Amino acid sequence: MKIAIVTLDGFNEIDSFVALSILSRVKVDGWSVQITAPEKSVTSMNGVEIKARQKLSFANEADVVLFGSGTHTRNHIDNADLIAQFALDPTRQLIGAQCSGALFLHRLGFLPVTAATDAKTRPLLAATGCLIEDKPLIAQGNIVTAGGCLSSQYLAGWVIARALGLEHALAILEHVAPSGQKSSFVKTAADIIKPQLNVPSQPALYC
Amino acid sequence: MKIAIVTLDGFNEIDSFVALSILSRVKVDGWSVQITAPEKSVTSMNGVEIKARQKLSFANEADVVLFGSGTHTRNHIDNADLIAQFALDPTRQLIGAQCSGALFLHRLGFLPVTAATDAKTRPLLAATGCLIEDKPLIAQGNIVTAGGCLSSQYLAGWVIARALGLEHALAILEHVAPSGQKSSFVKTAADIIKPQLNVPSQPALYC
Q1: CATH number of the domain that A54 lies in?
Q2: Residue B44 is part of which domain span?
Q3: How much is the ipTM here?
Q4: Most buried in the list A167, A200, B62, B137, measured by CB within 10 Å?
Q5: B121, B154 Cβ separation under 8 angstroms
Q6: Which residues 6+ apart lie within 8 Å of A22 measured at CB?
Q7: What's the number of domains chain A is made of?
Q8: Is there a domain that residue A204 lies in?
Q9: Torsion over CA: B154, B160, B165, B170 (sign)
Q10: pLDDT (tens digit, 9 = 90+) per residue, B159-183?
Q11: Cβ separation of A50 and B50 shorter than 8 Å?
C-alpha cells in the first residue's frame, strides 16, 4: 500500500503531518507513507521547510492519494503545469481531500456530489453545485472529503479502515488519542468512520 | 511572546506540528512560534526532514518552551552536551511537555509532582516518584504536561489561554476543530484547559 501525501508550498502542517504520523503507525509489509511534492523542498503556511520524499509522479502510482489544505491552493489549482502532472484513477485509488484540498478534486474532475470541507472553502465548493454537509468526513466510493484541520485523524482512520479493516484503524487511533479520553475518542471515531466505509460512488461533478 | 518548539531527531510530527500550527493562528504583534533544534535540520520519527528555524539557545530566551515526544528521547536526555545547552526558568517561562517530552522536565529538574503522559513513558516517570494521572493535560504553576499525541491541541490551547485568555484559545481551537463537531470540541477543550490555568506550582521532583 503506497500512500502519497501531496504536499505543496503553503501547506497546512496539521493536514499533512497528522495523516502521515497516524498512517505511519501501520506496521504491515509494503505499507509506505510518503510526503510527495513537485519540488525537492516545500515550505508550509507557517514557514516550515521540509524535504520531499517523492516526486509528484508517485501520486499516480500510489494506492492512496491525500490532498491537504493550504494557503496557496487556489494558485496551485490554476497552475496548469502542476495539474497536468496528475493522472489519478478513483476506480483503482483511494483519493482523499481535506478542507481546500477538495478544490483539487474539483479541478481533477473527481469532486463527489456531497462533500465535507471547512468554512472558507464551503462557498467555493458550493458554487460548483456540490452539496456541503457539516460533517467531519464524507465518502462516496473511493473518494473521501474531510472538513476542519483536526478531521485529519478521521481521514487517516478511514484510509486504514478501507485498507485493513475498522478494528485496525481504531486500534491505531486509540494509540494517538489524548490520555483519559481514549474510549470516548475511539467511539466518536468509529461513529464517524464506519458509515463512510461502504458508500456507493456517484457520478462526479465535473467542472 | 516567543515560543520555542524544541524539535530533535526522531521527533513525533503530531507533537511539534499540531502545536506549531495551532499556535501560529494567533495574530498578535510579537507572537512568534519557531521550530527550535540543535542542528540545521532534523528528521522526524517517520523520516520527514525539516529545517530548523532557530538554534537551541532560542529556547532559553523564549517565553514558552515546548518539548514534544520522539523515538530518541532517552538518547537525547542522556546527551550531556545537549542538556547543558538548556538554561530554562519556570518562574519566567511557560514550559510544556508531551508524552516522552516529560523526561526532559525530569532531566532538567522541573518535573512536577503530578503529570500527564503516554502509556510508554508512564512507568519511566512513575519510577521517579511522580504521580501520573490519566488525563490529557495537567498544569502545576507554569509547567504543563500532556499525554497522548493528540493532546497537543490542548497543550497549544493552554499556552494561548495563559498568554491571551481562555476565550482567545477557544476561538482558535474552534477554527481547527473538525466540521460538525465544533461546539462539542470546544466544550471538551474548555473542560480540560480551564481547570489547569490557575494551578499553584509545587516543589519540583528533582532527580
Answers
A1: 3.40.50.880
A2: 2-196
A3: 0.95
A4: B137
A5: no
A6: A152, A153, A156, A157, A160, A172, A173, A176, B14
A7: 1
A8: no
A9: negative
A10: 999 999 999 999 999 999 999 999 9
A11: yes
